[in-house]
Amino acid sequence: MRSPGLLAAALVAAALLLAAGAGAATEEAYVTLLYGDEFVLGVRVLGKSLRDTGTRRDMVVLVSDGVSEYSRKLLQADGWIVNRITLLANPNQVRPKRFWGVYTKLKIFNMTSYKKVVYLDADTIVVKSIEDLFKCGKFCGNLKHSERMNSGVMVVEPSETLFNDMIDKVGRLPSYTGGDQGFLNSYYPDFPNSRVYEPDSPLTPEPETQRLSTLYNADVGLYMLANKWMVDEKELRVIHYTLGPLKPWDWFTAWLVKPVETWQDIRQKLEESLPGTGGGRNPHDQLVVKILFILPFCLLLFGYYQSCFQTNKELISIRSLCAFARRARHKYKSEEPLPSYSVVGSSAAFGISNQRVSPLLQLQISIST
Ligand SMILES: *[C@@H]1O[C@H](CO)[C@@H](O)[C@H](O)[C@H]1NC(C)=O
Question: From which residue to which does the signal peptide run (predicted)?
């Protein structure tokens, strides 16, 4: 009766393996949001920066319909868990259509398969481990513009009840931005009075909201004010590239804002460390670079042909030179008379058609034979 025993052991082992596999998904995750292909490179660099801090937690990117399949595969290859979502309609219809979907960020409050999520905007990078953020309470965010909460970096405890309550109030509460950030400021009106989160001394009872220090959401706008970080640079955790329309993946921003170099350094590492991902390059950018590279050559070639066809004389003189050379050779080798054929163009230009070949032409002829 050994085989049933072995079978049972094998089954138990298989079950254990399965359980381990299922447990591979972490209870806490980093989350970002991608509305279109424009920010794909941003998400890739963010992912790389996160992995460089040594985290083993899930990295989830919520992608909307505007994101291409190519980009989704790219992100998957980078180690992101790609979750497709539909945009959450903007109830404040006074805003133009491009603001549609700005409430979609609220969906992170509905990610109930995780106990806690750290949300990061696609234009952020992590320069030092932020694992301690998972110890933050129910809702943590940064205070910017003196008394407003910035939704670029947030710690959220997903809850369907909370999410449904938010959705219920989305149409009623005002939003100064017309989007999620303004709404969250109305939803948590007391946020400016929150205590600053200190990972080493947790508060009891756990407060509803807590503020994160600037180190967790350091705005490059802040850097630009004094041309340096006004916080301890060694302690910097998250850099947020809020430059309005300028983004770190625009090639010229590194000249304008020094911290973009940090972003570019990570982008460059992307190429080496992530196989099968197109080397971290944006295919669109690559095409533009190729076109810009080839364009001068095309123009040069075009100009050359243009000039050739315009001044036919040049072509003709080359042809007549050849004919002349051929005739001259025949004449020189065999003293026989050449079959008479007319030379295209003005052989008379040479003025020596019936004379002995000059030493220079002789040399040319000997080279060509
Ligand atoms: C919120 O999450 C629940 C459970 O996963 C899901 O059934 C529901 O569709 C989600 N709501 C929205 C608006 O995404």
Answer: 1-24
| Long-range residue pairs from 35-38, CB within 8 A, at least 24 positions apart, any chain | 35/64, 35/66, 35/67, 35/87, 35/101, 35/104, 36/64, 36/66, 36/67, 37/66, 37/67, 37/68, 37/71, 37/284
Contact 83, 110 (CB under 8 A): no
Phi, psi dihedral angles at 219 (to 5 degrees): -80, 130
Q: Is residue 366 part of a domain?
A: no
CB 150 within 8 A of CB 144: yes
Cα separation of 267 and 107, whole Å?
28
**pLDDT of 94:** 55
- Angle subtended at Cα 114 by Cα 41 and Cα 150, rounded to the nearest 5 degrees: 55
Query: What is the Cα–Cα distance from 232 to 216, expressed in whole angstroms?
Result: 12
- Check pocket membership of 71 for ligand 1, CB cut-off 6 A: no
Q: Tell me whether residue 80 is in a domain.
A: yes
Binding site membership of 110 for ligand 1 (Cβ less than 6 Å): yes
CA 111 to ligand 1 centroid distance, Å: 8
Domain count, the chain: 1
Chunked in runs of 10, what are the mean pLDDT values of the chain (369 residues)?
52 47 71 92 95 95 92 93 83 53 85 97 96 94 86 96 91 82 92 92 87 93 82 91 82 82 88 50 69 89 78 58 68 54 43 44 47
**256 lies in some domain:** yes
Containing H/E element for 119?
A: strand 116-120
Nearest 5°: phi and psi at 209?
-135, 150
Return the best residue to mutate from 110, 117, 168 for the ligand 1 pocket (most ligand atoms within 8 A of CB).
Answer: 110
Q: Look up the domain containing 63 and give its range.
A: 24-281
How many A from CA of 88 to the centre of ligand 1?
11
- Report which ligand 1 atom has the smallest distance to the Cα of 107: 14
Helix (H, G, I), strand (E, B) or coil at 327: helix
Calpha distance 242→210 (Å, rounded): 22
Q: Which atom of ligand 1 is nearest to the CA of 85?
A: 14
CATH number of the domain that 211 lies in?
3.90.550.10
Residue 204's pLDDT is 82
